[in-house]
Design goal:
This protein is an alpha/beta fold. About 45% of the residues lie in helices and about 10% in strands.
Length: about 230
């Protein structure tokens, strides 16, 4: 199985990669299109030069790594906003697709802790809907995983026709060998963790431009939320 996980930033996506990466039958990939995305857009992301120096910046070579076989199963962590009109997508046709969602108010508040500005494109909500419409797949809410990790992962594995592995519930602190070079800027909390974070409280209250961005992102989240997987009881 090639499992393509489509997420926005600040959305438990790295913890999910660690969860699958702790299975003996999975190889994991961390944002294989990030380098090509930065080269194409010229955006001033944190560590952009280091990312492009250390990671593939050619769309077609990055796509080839996604299409390649490896372990019995491969988990690919993708950011929705990294996919542009010129991104080759033939590799994705044979994948199983997983869509990881999170309330946009939480995403926006967390994102601003790492960057000074944020746009709707930065969090990938509209791109996520486009990818879901194109490929379909399983939808899982990060809040549900944090609230009940084992029931949610059991339900996910059952839906994917995988045997649940208890190793998915924890991992060693300090990161994963497959981490992108950007990990030292973005992954501090998950590097300190050995399992999924505790359940969150109500979404934060936003104001001004941030509240407007949240309102723009909410429809995409709400549509996908209606499709989300329920925990296995």
């Amino acid at each position: 199985m090639k499992l393509a996980c489509w997420s926005g930033p600040r959305n438990l996506s790295t913890a999910m990669m660690y969860s699958f990466g702790n299975r003996a039958d999975f190889r994991v990939m961390d944002e294989p299109f990030y380098g090509a995305f930065l080269k194409e857009t010229g955006l001033e992301h944190p560590m952009a030069a280091e990312v492009m120096a250390a990671h593939e910046t050619d769309w077609h070579r990055a796509a080839a790594t996604c299409a390649a076989d490896g372990a019995p199963h491969v988990y690919q962590k993708h950011m929705c906003h990294h996919i542009l009109s010129e991104t080759p997508m033939g590799w994705a046709v044979g994948c199983t697709h997983l869509f990881l969602i999170r309330h946009p108010a939480r995403v926006l508040a967390s994102y601003l802790a790492k960057r000074q500005e944020v746009t709707l494109t930065d969090i990938g909500s509209e791109q996520q809907i486009e990818l879901f419409d194109k490929f379909g797949g399983v939808v899982i809410d990060s809040a549900d995983i944090r609230a009940a990790p084992e029931p949610m992962l059991r339900a996910l594995c059952a839906t994917l026709d995988l045997e649940f592995d208890p190793a998915m519930l924890s991992w060693p602190a300090g990161g994963h060998a497959s981490d992108g070079v950007w990990a030292k800027h973005w992954y501090g909390a998950v590097h300190a963790s050995t399992g999924f974070a505790e359940a969150e409280g109500p979404p934060p209250e936003l104001s001004g431009d941030l509240a407007e961005l949240c309102e723009e992102a909410l429809p995409s989240y709400t549509i996908l939320k209606t499709q989300k997987l329920k925990p296995e009881m």
